[in-house]
Amino acid sequence: MEYDNTNRGIISKNLNKTSDNHPDQSGSLNVNGVEYWLSGWIKEGKKGKFLSLSIKPKEDKAGKPKAKVEDDFDQDVPF
What is the pTM of this model? Predict the structure, then answer.
């Protein structure tokens, strides 16, 4: 049985950070079958440290977001 990642995600320390502009945390997120990149920056505010987040759709090689394609057609149509 394959694990279902739908509506789940993970974020961890960004080991590839080479600039202050790069996120401190990075990972991925799945929302309703669509995959996203998840980035986080540790910031300091009036109430202490917090994590600011950003999401961006993962894209295929053609530059279009990877989306789960639903087959809306009834396969039992007799023609």
Answer: 0.69
